[in-house]
Design a protein that fits this description.
globular; mainly alpha; MFS; two-stranded antiparallel ribbon; transport; 3 domains; Multidrug resistance protein 3; Growth Hormone, Chain: A
Length: 467
């Protein structure tokens, strides 16, 4: 059997691949209408499609992993991502790019599945550190991927980004097949196809309303239909899940105080993280003449943001030791405090580039601690046979936070603009309000975290089968 260190390394590489998919298109997002000969409203689907696919696939793939083997589902998700990358790389038009990007969203499910695999195969003393390391890849992949994507975009054909993603996926597939052992724990029963369909429809409706509200209008018929319709579907879905013997997600487990409060904190933490991803790059890249920017190139700006991901990686062993000795709740509290400090610092000091650098380092510490704590809190509160589905649900709540931040902060920055050379650009007021929103979300995460119980929930026995 491969060493435990090798298993952790391979799963971490899979996590890097996952987070890289979300920074892949950042360097060319503003140029997509020109590159694809399509309207800006249409090219927004290049990003939205990945978001929707990730949100839907993550909790469903977690349940599939619990039932049919976590490594097997990881391999399927990676293969789907590779197929999507090839489709996008070969597509000159927008339809193929959107299809490819939708398939690429499948890779996001490997992070909660990888964390669940760690619980299954690693020695108990190593689990917390390994989870912290895996969680750090969510920031490191984006931090490293952004300058790499910017460099490729500036020097070569932008389709090379997709070929690079495909190559990375092939490497990950081979490493997982070679190194990661077969999961020995399975949950017996049948897969809840109706529940999966209901969850998918409900989530897509709500996320469409959130992600496209700025373009369609928050009071428009499509947004209201998607949002209210999605909410209604999820309410019916929840009623159905509570009344069947083998649900997609055990909502009674999800309602345990430790699980429920962790998921609520995840929404706030996700909002706080993505608010920084929206605000800081724009502050760095806007022309100095606007009065709100530093006039840096995309490549240089990405290098200023990159240390946040590196800090996450450097702090992962510390996070593991803190969790092992005192429990993961302290990590979540430290993460929220660091995020509050980051936004507070920026509100007081934002006149120099190094101010933004310091803020991003604090953001990295906050997300490194916070994201490491969440799966630990979840896994201490659910049966081992439910870890895949429960971690997938937690990842979904983080995605809801990031999606909401993208919409809300985007709306704020679009509202407070000034004309610069014929183009509306955000003002200092818009950035200030966005920073206040990000800091407020971090305060919410801190308050919620204070009420999370410290004790482990009793681990009831579930029927299981060897793989």
């Amino acid at each position: 059997m491969p060493s435990q260190g090798a298993i952790v390394a391979v799963l971490a590489i899979a996590g890097l691949c996952s987070s890289f998919m979300f920074t892949l298109m950042v360097p060319i997002q503003s140029k997509l209408p020109e590159l694809l000969n399509a309207s800006r409203d249409d090219t927004a689907w290049v990003v939205t499609s990945t978001l929707l696919a990730a949100a839907v696939i993550t909790p469903i793939s977690g349940r599939l992993g619990d039932m049919y083997g976590k490594r097997r589902i990881v391999l399927v998700l990676v293969a789907v991502m590779v197929a999507g990358s090839v489709v996008a790389a070969l597509s000159p038009g927008i339809v193929g790019i959107i299809v490819g990007r939708t398939l690429q969203g499948a890779i996001v499910g490997v992070v909660p599945l990888g964390i669940s695999i760690m619980r299954d195969v690693l020695h108990e003393d190593r689990v917390d550190s390994a989870i912290a390391f895996m969680s750090a890849t969510l920031g490191v992949g984006g931090a490293l991927g952004l300058p790499i994507s910017a460099l490729i975009t500036e020097r070569s054909d932008w389709h090379l980004l997709f070929w690079m993603a495909a190559g990375l996926g092939v490497i990950v597939f081979g490493l997982v097949l070679w190194i990661v052992p077969v999961s020995v724990l399975r949950t017996a029963g049948r897969f809840d196809y109706l529940g999966a369909a209901g969850l998918a429809v409900g989530l897509i409706g709500i996320l469409l309303a959130i992600s496209r509200g700025n373009e369609w209008g928050w009071g428009s018929a499509p947004v209201l239909a998607c949002g209210l319709g999605g909410l209604a579907v999820l309410l019916v879905w929840g009623w159905y899940e509570l009344r069947i013997d083998e649900p997609l997600l055990d909502l009674r487990v999800a309602a345990r105080p430790a699980v429920l409060l962790t998921n609520i904190a995840s929404v706030a933490m996700g909002f706080s993280l993505f608010a920084s991803n929206v605000v800081y790059p724009q502050m760095l890249e806007l022309p100095v003449a606007t009065g709100a920017g530093f006039g840096l190139s995309l490549l240089v700006a990405s290098l200023i943001v990159m240390p946040s991901g590196l800090v996450m990686m450097l702090l992962s062993p510390i996070a593991g030791r803190i969790a092992f000795r005192t429990g993961p709740k302290l990590l979540l509290l430290l993460g929220a405090i660091s995020l509050i400090a980051a936004y507070g610092f920026t509100l007081l000091f934002s006149s120099e580039v190094w101010h933004i650098l310091v803020a991003n380092i604090l953001i990295g510490a906050g997300i490194g601690f916070g994201y490491a704590s969440m799966p630990m809190l979840i896994m201490r509160s659910v049966p081992q046979s439910e870890t895949g589905a429960s971690n997938g649900l937690n990842a979904l709540f983080r995605s809801l936070g990031t999606s909401t931040a993208a919409a809300v902060v985007g709306a704020v920055l679009a509202t407070y603009t000034v004309d610069f050379e014929g183009v509306p650009v955000p003002t200092t007021t818009g950035f200030t309000l966005s920073l206040i929103l990000g800091g407020t979300a971090a305060i919410v995460a801190l308050v919620v975290a204070l009420f999370i119980p410290r004790h482990r929930a009793p681990q009831e026995r579930h029927p299981s089968l060897p793989e």
